[in-house]
Amino acid sequence: MPYVLFRSIFGLWYNAQMMKKKKWICASLALLLAGCSTTQKTTMEDLYSNISLDAGFDTVLYYQEYNADTEASKAHFEETVSLFSHYNELFDIYNDYEGVSNIKTINDFAGISPVVVDPAIIEMLNEAKAFSTMSDDEFDVTIGSLLKVWHNYREEGQALNEDGKSGNVPSISELEEAAQFEGWDKVIIDEEASTVYITDPEVSLDVGGIAKGFATEKIAETLEEKEDIGTVVINAGGNNRTIHTKPDGSSWRVSIQNPDGGSSFLTVSAEDSISFVTSGDYERYYTAEDGTRYHHIIDPDTLFPADHYRSVTIITKDSGAADCLSTALFTMTIDKGKAMLETYEQETGETADAIWIMDKDKADSSVKGTELQNFIIVATDNIKDDITYAIS
What we know:
Blueprint: H1 2-20, E1 29-32, E2 47-56, E3 59-66, H2 70-91, H3 103-108, E4 115-116, H4 119-134, H5 144-162, H6 172-179, E5 187-190, E6 195-198, H7 211-224, E7 231-236, E8 239-243, E9 252-257, E10 264-270, E11 275-280, E12 285-287, E13 293-295, E14 311-316, H8 319-330, H9 334-348, E15 352-359, E16 370-372, E17 375-379, E18 387-389
Antiparallel strand pairs: 1-9, 2-3, 3-7, 4-6, 5-6, 7-8, 8-11, 9-10, 10-18, 11-14, 12-13, 14-15, 15-17, 16-17
Helix pairs in contact: 2-7, 7-8, 8-9
């Protein structure tokens, strides 16, 4: 059965990754692809699966395609890996690549000169800017100076944790110093010249909240244009994007993991081409001397990791939008998050739904949700009937 095949491949991938990199954390979503009925041309048995461990974005790229033409599926996988690597080079903020002007290049030339870049970078930055406006700057890729401070402390903290020691926490003065260097008014995008220029040398871009989702969406759009494409699932480290409906006509069923680890404890169903993206506090973090786990999703208002929720999952067509929304909603109250989803629909004409998972002690009396184990789960109205909860 396809699900057994998926679990087997996933197990081999996970073991290899843990040997290769102890700090790698499993993707928060896993597609459940059970089914065995047939259609006229392609059946649920016509499943091609492959994995790339080094395509980029510091994650594993998992690919599945239901297609009677196996050679076409192989070619689609190879193109997917190539494009994923290409976008990784463009959006990288840490590494240089020969012949490539990327986000790091833009940051390096801040206050010096404009940088000629690939149009994909400008498209991605324009999308990021739009989400910054929609979120009242809760989502902001211009706070790279602040995020760099946390990145350095997190890298140090993870290394200390591996040695059985506690990590350190940046002082509020250090964070406030870094936080003052931000703002889209410091970023000049010239679409005609295809250049990006940061006017303040202390300001830098960090596109971690959009880059992987944007790349996944661009790849999916490329595949959707192919006449020989089948039914596809791309899982880029938890950024899941489907193409078309499964051959047996059944819904995609996505499992959302327990934030405390172990098996998943709820699934959500959706149709046709769709994206599922989760932001969680269990993905990249370290533990400090105060016993607190400091994760990677920083609230620009408090300057510290947001602590409203354990995870936020977004379900919408566009993977890049889902990436931005999951990050933004992680720092907002549920009411503000719902308001942003409404704004997104008004601005784009696309619907987006959300699932919030929070610890019980973080939910006040105004939060109405489903209790499951030690959590409260809140979902937007459109998908409440599409969620199946595990037995608590």
